[in-house]
Amino acid sequence: MVFADAITKDHRELETYYNEVINSTDHDHQQRYGNQFTWELARHSIGEDLVVYPAFEKYLGSEGKAMAESDRKDHHQVKELLKEFQKLKSKDPNFVPKLKELWAILYEHIKEEEEKGLPSLEQSLTSLTGESESMAKKFGRTKAFVPTRSHPSAGEHPPFETAMGLLTAPIDHLADLFRKFPDETISPNPSTK
């Protein structure tokens, strides 16, 4: 799998989980998919902060640095909203509106990333044999060790986010054992994703 496809796959999963929440009136179903959405978005965001944005900076020069900084700002806003959303229960009247508010920003971020950032990055990686596939694997491995909840105070730049992630991830993973997830998800085990 090439790098851009790994990122895009996550984007489609997030969209699926979002739609499961907003198109349902069953609070249990909404809570399960809300937890799944939170779990995936937290891991995805940190994976991008640690793998994608440094790659933009490394391979795309000054334009890549500008894209990375813009995306980090988007991520910070998304992480703040996710932090608010993850505290809500599905029976809370703000549950769906907060998710819709979050999605509106996230959707624009995804669209820009898929139309501009990722194609530019993939184009620059074509001359580097195996680099795109290697980065896709690195992105997947990174997601296995990061927090599963939003912690915007950790920042968006390595090494701070890396260090904070190593401290908070075990607590998040333990708490996930007590959260409800979709029935087809036995346990949100990042090592199997």
From TrEMBL:
Designated name of the protein: Hemerythrin-like domain-containing protein
Q: Which residues form the Hemerythrin-like domain?
A: 4-119
Per its UniProt record, what Pfam families does this chain match?
Hemerythrin
Q: InterPro entries, alphabetically?
A: Hemerythrin-like (IPR012312)
Top-level lineage group = Eukaryota
